[in-house]
Each structure stands twice: as C-alpha cells, then as structure tokens.
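A favour, since you know our structure tokens better than I do. Could you add the entry underneath, on a fresh line?
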Amino acid sequence: MFAMRRDSVGYILGFSTVVCLVCAIPIAAAAVMLRPRQAENQRVDRLSKVLGVAGLVSPTEELGREEVVKRFADNIIPRVVDAQTGAYVDSIDAANYDQRAASRDPAQSTSAPSNAAKVLRLPRLLVVYEQRDGDAVKSLILPIQGYGLWSTMYGYIALAADARTISGITFYEHGETPGLGGEIENPRWQARWKGRLAYNDSNRVVVQVIKGVAGPPASDPYHVDGLAGATITSRGVSNTLQFWLGPEAFGPFLDRYRSTLKDKAS
C-alpha cells in the first residue's frame, strides 16, 4: 500500500488510517484508566457542594480531597428515603447511592407526572443529607434538578431543622447563559435565599424567584430577587423547587419529618 504514489487517494487514506489508529489507541487507553479517577473527582466535588450549601465551607475556601471527605464524614449523614411514603430506607447504602444515576435507570425510576420543571423521570428512592450536631439535625440538604432556559440545572437546597426555612441553595452544573442565567452560581445571589420560607403555614410550597428585587426575609419571606435579564432561568428555579419540595418528590418525606418534630415537641 505504501508503495503507492504519495499523492494518490489510496496512499492518503491508508496513511490517515494508520495515524488515526496510532493516536486513538493511547487516547482510548488513557480514558479507560482515568475513568475511576474522574468518577472519584466528581464524587468529591459533590460532597464539597453539600458542605458548601450546609455552610460548612465558605465560597472562597479551598479544601483538598482528604479534608472534604473528612469534613463531610464528621458533619453529614446521607440517608435514603422512599419517594412515595417518605420513610427512611436503611437497607440501602446511602453513601454509595447515586440519585442522579437512578433517575436514568428505568428499573430504579418511574415516569414523572407532567411538571413545569421538566423532570422526566423520578427515582423511587431519594437521597437526603442530614447535617447533624450530635443527635440533633441542623439542616436537611436535598438534591434538586430542573430545566432553565438552555439546560437542566443540578443543585442542592438546604432546609433548616424546621424543614420550612431555607438555609442555603447552590447549583453545581448547568448550561445557562454566562452573566445572565448563569448567575445562579453567584454566591451573592445564593446568599439572598438564606432565611426565606419554602412553605407557608399550610405546608404548601410558595417560595419563588420574582421579577425585580424582593424585600428582606423578615417582611417578604416567600420571594427571592430575580436574575436580571434571565426571566426564564428564574422561573426555572421556581419550578424546580415547586417540584422537588412538592408531593411528587421530597414532600412526603418532609411532611413525615415535620410530623415527627411535632410529636417530639408534644
């Protein structure tokens, strides 16, 4: 084949094929070998996001892998709950349960009812991260996802021990427009959620991102400042919380949790 003239079609195709194979084999091998490390890096990054929304690490603080894992283990307990009943499912290894992966597996999920957040499939089991101080729950961190303008936005919301008051929110993956909808990642905007109420006195989800500027949490507890120039992304955040805090997702668990609080108080 290589005895052909160098400007012939056969020579060019043959040479190109050999070059592609020589380059592709080491690249493919590297991708396979690095896959476990990439998966571990993603896992640790999500642990750091849970720590961040729980207020256990500041936005400017940089932690190494070991410190992230240690701080998480010292403060956070992952639990698995049944989406339908809201009951804990302690037979599942919560530390290794991947809710996002479960939502893509027909064996572990069901078709979600029509919803404005455009969630297509709902896992039968959901993960809840409990921030604890000894035996006391300080906050509940819940994974959330919903569609904005261009993309599915993945994040976490933290509720205080009363399961009504928002103590933090974060988004760790999305494809929204930088400088507009992408401001869902801005720590200053995320800080405006602290102290807002996700539920009213009837335990109905009422928190929403409004167009314009919301008042302080004490006088305007159910509203959060809108994102300038990003009305659809803002609406997407509201829709996301309506779905995940509502009866189709974490609602049964949160109702059950609040009922337990009442029983303890009585």
The first helix runs from residue 9 to 53.
